[in-house]
Write a structure and sequence with these properties.
With 476 residues, the protein is an alpha/beta fold. 39% of the residues lie in helices and 10% in strands.
Length: 476
């Protein structure tokens, strides 16, 4: 078929049936080769359509036409058209599908890099220690003043700085907070500003937690480990370096806290944990309004499918994946079934509506304590209702409140063995107040730091709250 003929058929389809020539559903849904039949041809059309060529009749039954129009609307159109007109419409749809697929004779699978460039790896080459002033290994403060609240240079949680694994080891660091300013895995730019936004309000992630009367900054050796280098022209190259850096942190015994950046980071973060602790040896609890297990996309690294990639590469078995807060307009039926087949344990906001948040929280906490003794938390800030998290690229109404999320994160980090944590999708460019998203994100991070500090102190009581903070102790 010539290009002109294809264009004519697509144009006929668009004008004649009011059918858009772009997919009405996510491309990954239509591309999934294992998609089950979704469409049953109405009885009154079966005689009319039975003389279609078998491959075109099968195309209708497969549900692939749902990319262009809902079945009832399409079949209403078919009732008023001749068989040749219907066949022309099917040809047009099949042509669009064929043109969207990879064709080795036409398409480049990737853009080649210039491996002869003398700056090929310049973006991630670290500064030689020989060029730095001599100092003993260990964390160091950037504060000019004796009072730590007035930092000369902002840091995560107002913590001292460490730059090398040797610093982490010498300082016996418990938690290393590192920025990962990657935002090329999303269609929305701005998440690379997340680490800076949280640093600017660093004091809001430090200090005493009134709920437990535990001060994580006093109990834990916490450092700001700087930012991981990002190749701003390639997320594919970047995620491999992120994986290396997160792995290097974990190998020292420190718990990596990765501040993003978009959710494509979950893939290298979790893969790094598997590198250190072994494939299948960790569990993941994933807070998000989106399931992030998209399949069949052209880009294998993006913020919509890190979960699928982690599962597909065997880093974490599906039975050790727990998802909380799902409420976006996906997954579809096939994906929910796929998640069940993998053994996922998911908790949607539909379940919260049915059972109430306390019941869902307790169930998720119970599941997080099962199956593995090592847990990674991946926290997409869009799991929180956009009333509290305006600064994120893909907000979805109807999410968790801060009063729901903070206690759960604190309990997870106190009642399980957390070996890693990421907080991602903070986009200060779309934060209407320019600080609330960072403020609340720091509160989430502080809740996890508090939980880890409680665990270090030996506080083992589930859902522990300080008697001093909960009761005034006066006679009534």
């Amino acid at each position: 078929m010539t290009n002109r003929r294809r264009a004519a058929l697509v144009g006929v389809l668009a004008i004649w049936a009011g059918v858009p020539v772009w997919p009405a559903e996510p491309a990954s849904k239509a591309a999934a080769e294992d998609a089950k039949p979704k469409v049953e041809i109405p009885a009154d059309l079966q005689d009319k359509l039975k003389s279609l060529p078998p491959e075109k009749l099968e195309y209708l039954k497969s549900g692939k036409m749902l990319r262009f129009q809902r079945a009832p609307v399409m079949f209403d159109v078919f009732r008023n058209r001749t068989l040749p007109e219907i066949e022309a419409a099917i040809d047009a749809m099949m042509s669009v599908e064929a043109q969207q697929k990879f064709d080795a004779s036409r398409d480049q699978p990737s853009i080649p890099l210039d491996t002869n460039s003398p700056a090929f790896n310049s973006w991630k080459v670290q500064r030689p220690q020989a060029l730095n002033p001599k100092r003993e290994p260990g964390p160091f403060s950037l504060n000019r003043y004796a009072e730590g609240w007035f930092a000369a240079i902002p840091t995560f949680a107002n913590a001292p700085v460490a730059l090398t694994p040797e610093d982490l080891i010498a300082g016996k660091v418990d938690v290393a907070i590192v920025g990962a300013p990657l935002d090329m895995g999303s269609g929305y730019r701005g998440a690379k500003g997340g680490p800076l936004a949280l640093r600017k309000l660093g004091h809001t992630a430090a200090g005493n937690d009134m709920n437990t009367m535990v001060d994580p900054s006093a109990e834990l050796n916490i450092v700001d480990y700087g930012d991981i280098a990002v190749d701003n022209m390639s997320s594919e190259r970047t995620v491999h370096h992120v994986r290396e850096m997160v792995r290097d942190i974990a190998k020292t015994g420190a718990i990596p806290f990765i501040i993003g950046g978009d959710h494509s980071l979950e893939y290298p973060d979790v893969a790094a944990m598997a590198d250190v602790y072994g494939k299948g040896k960790i569990g993941v609890i994933h807070f998000d309004s989106h399931y992030d297990a998209g399949r069949g996309r052209a880009h294998l690294i993006d913020h919509g499918q890190p979960v699928w990639r982690v599962i597909n590469e065997g880093h974490v078995p599906g039975k050790n994946y727990i998802q909380v807060g799902l409420r976006a307009r996906s997954p579809d039926i096939e994906t929910f079934n796929w998640m069940r087949e993998q053994g996922f344990r998911y908790h949607t906001m539909v379940e919260v509506e049915k059972k109430g948040w306390p019941a869902v929280m307790e169930q998720a906490l119970k599941e997080a304590r099962e199956g593995t003794d090592k847990l990674f938390i991946s926290f997409d800030v869009d799991v929180i209702d956009p009333a509290f998290m305006t600064g994120t690229g893909t907000p979805v109404p109807g999410g968790l409140t801060m009063r729901e999320a903070v206690p759960m994160i604190r309990r997870l980090c106190a009642e399980t063995n957390v070996v890693g944590f990421d907080l991602i999708e903070v986009d200060p460019l779309v934060d209407e107040s320019n600080y609330v998203t960072a403020l609340n994100s720091n509160a989430i991070m502080h809740a996890c730091l508090t939980g880890i500090a409680m665990r270090k102190k030996g506080i083992t009581e589930q859902n522990y709250l300080s008697p001093l903070a909960t009761e005034h102790g006066q006679q009534r």
